Amino acid sequence: MENLLYLNAVMPYVYLILFYTSSKIQDSWVLLYSICFIGMIIEIIFTLIISILSPDKSKLAKVNLIVKLIQIPYYVLFFVVATGIFTILMALAGAGIFVLPILIAIDAAVFATTVIPAEICTIKLKIDKKISVVKMLLYLVVNSWYLIDIITAFAIRNDYKKHFIAPQPANQL
Prior knowledge:
Blueprint: H1 7-24, H2 29-53, H3 57-91, H4 96-127, H5 133-142, H6 148-164
Helix pairs in contact: 1-2, 1-3, 1-4, 2-4, 3-4, 3-6, 4-5, 4-6
């Protein structure tokens, strides 16, 4: 079930393509923005349901880490493109102020799809008494910071490896 969250790694690129396409076809802005908005809401709900119902939180932590790593090029591209679009449109009589909420919404929705599984994995680690309250709070807060959330994802994955994956006996010849 956790493997379905790999779709979260691809969806940001789909949103970026739709956003780029909508800038070329001006008659379809409302339709494409509506599709993006509905897609984001469905994706967030989908992520929340799968994360909560996931029987294997260790696998969920691993999938979340991989999704975050796949999304790194998207974020670099998104911030460069978003900054460029906003700057150009602000230079044109302040029109960029109308695009800014759309850019922020896309970014927040994409980010939520990786924050939700990480937060649920962190809470599960605490419920199982594998991490302290301080470490849980640190993970919950730091997990919502860009770039640092990748380090946190590695730490959560390592906590699951350490506490839930049984060590394999060494081969004896």
